[in-house]
Each structure stands twice: as structure tokens, then as C-alpha cells.
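A sample copied in:

***
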Amino acid sequence: MTFNFNTLIDVAIAALFIWLLYLQFGPVRGLRTLAARDFDRELAEAPKEALLLDVREAGEFRRGAIPKAVNIPLSALGRRLEEIPKDRSVYLYCQSGVRSKRAARLLKRRGYDRIAQLKGGIAAWDGKRTR
């Protein structure tokens, strides 16, 4: 059997690519993903200390948001963690669910453990919106 260095490189690149895809789109341990109806119900029943966090960019937020949401864009989240108390439930959403999942992953790594996200993002939301 001969050793083919190029094949080894190809396998390593493929494995790295698969690992990166998993990190991006794989599950986030402890994250609850809620359908719009369940998300709305939980928000209504949540203590007023719960934080509704919109991780879209400011321009997206200004075009319409879920009432009482706080806007901290994903791009600024790492720098603004002090605005998010660890002892509160955090409800995340974005446009489609991709950025809120990334935000949840960041929050979990920083010790937040009461996190839920809106499945499908605000695109799946049929409740009230600000304008």
C-alpha cells in the first residue's frame, strides 16, 4: 500500500469543512427552539424580567420588531454581554433563525443557560410588530 499525501490532504479538508458546517448549523445544547405560537405564549407568561432580544442589525430592527424587544445585533453581541443578565431568561430571534442560533451558541459559551429562540425567526412570526 502506497501513501498518497494528496488524498490525506483532501480527507482532512473535507473533515474540516464538515466540522465547520456542524458548528454553524448543528444543535446548540440546552437551546429551546420554539414555534411562533409557543414563543408568543411563553413571552406572555414569562416574568417581566425575561429579556426579548432581537439580534438583527439596527436597520432591520427599525423596519419592525416584536414589541418590547431589545436590539443587540449579533455583530455587537460579544461586546455588549454586560447588558444581558445571566439570571434572566433570554428569548432570541432574528430574521430567519440562523443568527439567533449563533447568538445562542455564543451566550451558552459565556454561561447563559435559560435561552430560547424563535423557530424561523421573525419571518415566521404572525403576532404584533412595532413599526
Remarks:
- The helical segments are 5-25, 36-45, 58-62, 74-77, 98-109.
- The chain is about 40% helix and 15% strand.
- Residues 5-25 form the longest helix (21 residues).
- The mean pLDDT is 90.
